[in-house]
Amino acid sequence: MGQMVSDENFEEQAARNGGILKHGREILFQAFNWESHKHNWWSNLEEKVVDLAQSGFTSAWLPPPTQSLSPEGYLPQNLYCLDSCYGSLHDLQALLRKMKEHNVRAMADVVINHRVGTTQGSNGMYNRYDGIPVSWDEHAVTSCSGGKGNKSTGDNFDGVPNIDHTQPFVRKDIIDWLIWLRESIGFQDFRFDFTKGYSAKFVKEYIEQSKPLFAVGEYWDSCEYSPPDYRLNYNQDKHRQRIINWMDSTGGLCAAFDFTTKGILQEAVKGELWRLRDPEGKPPGVMGWWPSRSVTFIENHDTGSTQGHWPFPSDHIMEGYAYILTHPGIPTVFYDHFYGKDDSFHGGIAKLMEIRKCQDIHSRSAVKILEARSDLYSAIVDDKLCMKIGDGSWCPSGPEWKLAASGDRYAVWHKTQFPPSPSSPLLPSLPMEAEPPPENRHDDHHPSTSGGGLGYFHLRLLCPVAPLLLLLRSDRLYSLSLSGRRGPRLRLLASPRRRHGRRRRALLSTSGCALRLTHRSSSADAVRVNGRPLLRGGCPADLAVGDEVSLLRRGARYGFLVEKFVSCEGPKLAAAEPCGEVLVLRAESLRKRLRAISESHDPLSFLRDSHCVESGSDDVRVKKAREEDVFLPLNLNTPIDPVAEENLLREDCNLVQEKLEHCTDSAIAKNDTDELIQGSKGCCNGNTEQKEYSNENTEQQDNENEGCYSDGSTFFLNRLIGIGSDVRVEQRSGVTLPQLLHPMDSLERVFIATFTSDVPQNLPVTIACHNKERCWSASRESRTAAPFGSYPNLLLVYPQFPEEIAFGKDRKKQGVACHHPKLLVLQRKDSMRVIVTSANLVPRQWHLITNTVWWQDFPCRTSPDYSALFSKVEEPKSDFATQLVSFIAFLINEVPSQSYWINEIAKYNFEGAAGYLIASVPGIYARSPHYLESNYCLSRKQMLHTESAHRMFLGSVQTSVVGLSHRFHIPSDAGSKLKALSVLLSKCHVNMHGTTEVILKRNTNIPADANAVSVLVADLDEFTEEDSVHLGFLPREVAKWVSPLSDLGFFTFSGFIYPREALEAAYGATNTKVQLLLYVSKGPEFSQISRLIQDEHFPLLCSLVASLKRSLGLWRLEEVLSHFKWPETLETDFFYSASSIGTSINPQFIASFASAAGKRCNQDLDSEESDPEWGCWTANHELKKPSINLLFPTIDRVKNGACGIQLSRHLLSLPERTWQRLRSTGIFRDAIPHPYERIGHPMHVKVAQRRFESRLGKHSFGWTYCGSHNFSPAAWGQQLPPPKANPTEARAVSSGPRLHICNYELGIILIIPPSAMSKQTSGRKRDINDIALPFVVPPPQYKPGDRPATSLAMREAMAEARILQSNDLVDLSQDTDEDIPDEDDEHVIELSDCSPEEKEEEKIYAETLWEQVDSSQSQRKDQAGQ
Fold this sequence. Notes:
CATH superfamily of the largest domain: Glycosidases
Strand order of the largest sheet: 1-2-3-4-5-8-9-10
Distance between the termini: 82 Å
CATH architecture of the largest domain: Alpha-Beta Barrel
Helix content: 25-40%
Number of domains: 5
CATH topology of the largest domain: TIM Barrel
């Protein structure tokens, strides 16, 4: 445990050696952001000096002034050169002179952890500093970063040489430089950058020798987080102790930025203000333990600005400043907040600074925290200033307090000349503790019971050993706590006046028949009533007979049950009501029922359900109403009779069980395929069973010999067997697989993507399916499996999982990934049918389990149209063909024999598609860049200069440049090449995305690879090949299709790189790949592809299609829905039903999904005429108001289903920890199958719908998704935070958002647009209610005591039922219907640090090409010399 640090031992030394100003009244100003180098910054700041001085700033932290490889200044090189991207030395000196005139000290940003060299050392790295002042050799660089010095005394700053501060000559040179900055340049304060990189004792030495007036260090350490959702821990003592230990090691000479306070504060303002009081009642950051050395801030150039590594919530900025500018510590104001685009915070911040100065608040001021709860924080500082932040209403009482400043969610008061009144305390009184009732109070003012006298509540303690009975008198106040001395049990303290050292956890007040509970625990989930959390500090909860209360202690829950109330009044009451106790019990029981009904989201279902009223105790009117079908489930046409329903389910289970008892595992494995295709209704190939079903379902069997039709505007369900002979056989009741395949004789080809399948013998089929070992294998031989003796026309394809999503980027460790789509493509001569379903190709999922089926037929074209394969989504035209061919290309890219599917799809017209395909493909993706104009494109004959306006952009490919490190580190002329490269890159035009165009050159004279493509850097305005620098090559796997497609004239290719990334790689500062963006446009022969293309071109075209960047997962959902305007205030429902809910589901993921679906906060006024701002729904909004309901069956529903747990335990997946994490949000709803005949059969559907209703209620619209995506980050993608980097690292590439997807998935989204956007001009208007959902809508909310069918719940149910699997029964788990891996998506966080590096085979390829290129050039020179 850390302790409050006293300044007494440090002040004398600090005054003698500098570093800390004793009075502690500093206010710092960070005078730059990450983009400041782009402006004439020193001159810009000079204009603001007067305003800074008048506002009260004592010191301005300036950006690094030295010459640097990065324009931001954090890769210094020549320490004594102060001509930088921020301005010249002359401009800097003018700024410093003006600051001195106005008493604003200048703070230098001292970057001495690392330094970029000028020349190469012995190992080829640039770690020598020749030709500039402070010309160190390799001994000045740590051995950890490639030098010859000692091991680093701190963390390594990757990518550049780290300075070895243990070397005496290094320290001497740094001290001389710091003194020069102070005495010759005019800096007075120092800010030490990245102090984790070297020992704090060196900081102490530098301060002692250079004597700055004030010094602060950036000791940025990660806060404490806890899995599984990685929320910030309440207790951050370890974090702030590490910062304090560092400051202590400097001898107290150096302050530190209070990252602890920032981390806690930016979470607290989101509705968790209880975080701002630590267990000892002090501020929870460094401010609370060593305030005079705490430099507080809410944002800086790393955490905010355009980097945004750890941003403060933008809508809570003033709350943050209201906190740090009224509290102890040394506050810092960020440039972007004080001088923002609209100066919206300038006045408010300046006012708070004025109050701080007038009230003489300083770094050592005393804080008394008054309130710290979710929506309110208030404190008094030095007994002369009072403040509050948060939504909660609060103000100090008493005439001496005057409001000094206020704004959105903050207010500050200061004292007037009036002394404080003892009768008006600052702390508002608590309703139950302020005036506890006396122990012996029996006067006339005592509140009477309903019966007019005394009584007792019977409380039954639910303890592990034996339930104890406690009696509570109805005129007392009780304190409820957990006894640590007696073990985990509850203890009642019946003396309200007695003072107890421990804090009371809960209070029970009794008055007559009323029993009320209030608690003061800091945890939001510490006390529950009937399973629901009781909010701290809210209104007392009225307890009724039968209510169960539980308290959390050390991870375990203990509680009590309110059994009854017994009146103890005299004969008068007894005579009037001899059965008083019975009446009280009945009244309280009825009150509890009525309360439960009124709080239910679906009162009708609550009344109908047997859990609402105990069997045998139903009211006669309730029973009669049930018999008369008064209480009906919504959207059902048939009344629910619980008894009849139970009998029906038992009959179904018995029916299926009889089948299972007559078949064996081998029979299923062998014969399921035949019945799947032939339409047999049994689960095996027994003739007896088929006869039974033929008698029962003759009409249904005859119907299956016919086909089925769909225009694609809705989806259907599969037809289940054994649900009764009275079911009407029509398409609306379900379709069968034979109907979908009919007529089979006309099928030419079939493509299937599924998880598991049983294969029909008589069809030419390509199946892409899951195999854990093959899909993770890097070998091409693992991609396919064929032939099969009984299936000569079958080819199994195993799509590869990319290495980048494997744990540790190691294929051998594999990772979280699954090939999970359910797609069928049926090709006929005149049409192509595309089927998207949630059912795998196994009989059980089509016969016994509810699944969704969407399909549409598309006509054949007169000639192939390849342009349709590259279209973009445009409402109302769907990019269906593009998405379909792209997804199939992903699956078959490494199987050239199947690439003909690209050509086949081009033969059909998909313009009439009624829906939009939504695909997910494993990988880590960045946003697709916008089109960039290019001047050069790849050509076989010569450098082809062409205007991009004459070409049509088709897309981009993310690839890399290989061989760069070999080129610049090994040849003898590497130095001259580096210089030439630096000169050329400095002249290159850098576009808005930070890239510059390069020239792609065909190398037809390289024997090693006839398709090799060189990457050249040149001055494009005056291009000559002789003056260009050969940077490297395209990877072999890319060049093998780029070159032929370019030679054929089908496509043109242009290249772009990030120049600084290339330069850093050339200098050896990084080992990561150099990215190259390959832009693809139509070639001169694009329109003639259908005439010119040959079979050998199909694999090339397939590789191109698979490589083009597409929006996938969440980003694809956003891409489609962003074309429509969804009026937020008209939303009526938003729900998602899935058979699997991911392990790492948390508010962040739910908010990401809702944002992609168009959800936005209601603070923006809704308008159907204005386009909504996408992506504004955040985790903070999600926590305050959940956006979506998740449908998942309860364990009771599963146990009562067909065959009970057996059929569902390998079909449904909801981890127990996910349920426990989300249960308090109230987002779970029961998944009741619809129509009624499907009750008892498990649902394997993945359906989402967002519904809206027009203002007049005449039209319902919205969108519906169905397909294979379960509700998990593995399926939809996890939004990754920016790559972890040292806070001062100069990034070569902007760190935009990335999406990590684990699974192959495919679904369809059907859109009913708002009336204003509908293109329908005649006929009946489409309505979202036309789409029949497979579950009851609106879905009923879980009732108290309901528990979803989690994996743990099903295991417990199995154990309770003692289900034993014997040899004579079929084990349904053997034939796994669904792959439900342990979706441990938390591993995704580790992947965010992965940086791609060149593979060994790429290095070998590049080295071979370099040798032959150099040899060819030498021969040309020799020939020219002759």
